């Protein structure tokens, strides 16, 4: 996808070179261009389509959290699953993620939903679909992004040091069903949505389990506590 507003971190660009030259990615690019030409607003902005990859080079990946689609409200999506920009109301699923972190690790919930601090430490916050039309949930499903993000997960599975896959909800669990559980730690729980969090997301202990796995393999644990000032945490 050679849109001038879109760049990609070098290690991922090399790892995914074959995807970008594939016909499906050219079709996806044409779809996005056509949507913009008829006046559709697409989130996140083009420079943030690959923000999750830009912040977490392939050699740095320690954990993977999978989402489904970007938020479709104005000013919310910025390329990381579950994350919103500073100043934006914290979405309900992220509120529940913070509640579980407090139970698991004793970390008081952050007052913002900006998760770049996690991404910079090696938490790949990957949505399955990387764009959406304003106000139209799932509008870009089935256009090619799922194939691309499958390739990202496959690269992590095949090439990274042992990592933790934190798979919340049946969609994420199906998407990463091929991950090698002999090499990587695969943690499964219901989605943190208010509709399902009480069915086993609360009490799953995934944050402490992830750090225990990393430390057992000589890797630094994730500092899950977010900075109090999200603006100071930005690049």
Automatic annotation (TrEMBL):
One of its GO terms (cellular component) is cytoplasm. Keywords: Cytoplasm, DNA damage, DNA repair, Glycosidase, Hydrolase. InterPro entries: UDG_fam1, Ura-DNA_Glyclase_AS, Uracil-DNA_glycosylase-like, Uracil-DNA_glycosylase-like_sf. GO terms for molecular function: uracil DNA N-glycosylase activity. It catalyses: Hydrolyzes single-stranded DNA or mismatched double-stranded DNA and polynucleotides, releasing free uracil. Its main location: cytoplasm. Residues 54-214 form the Uracil-DNA glycosylase-like domain. PANTHER family: URACIL-DNA GLYCOSYLASE. Belongs to the uracil-DNA glycosylase (UDG) superfamily. UNG family. This is Uracil-DNA glycosylase. The gene is ung.
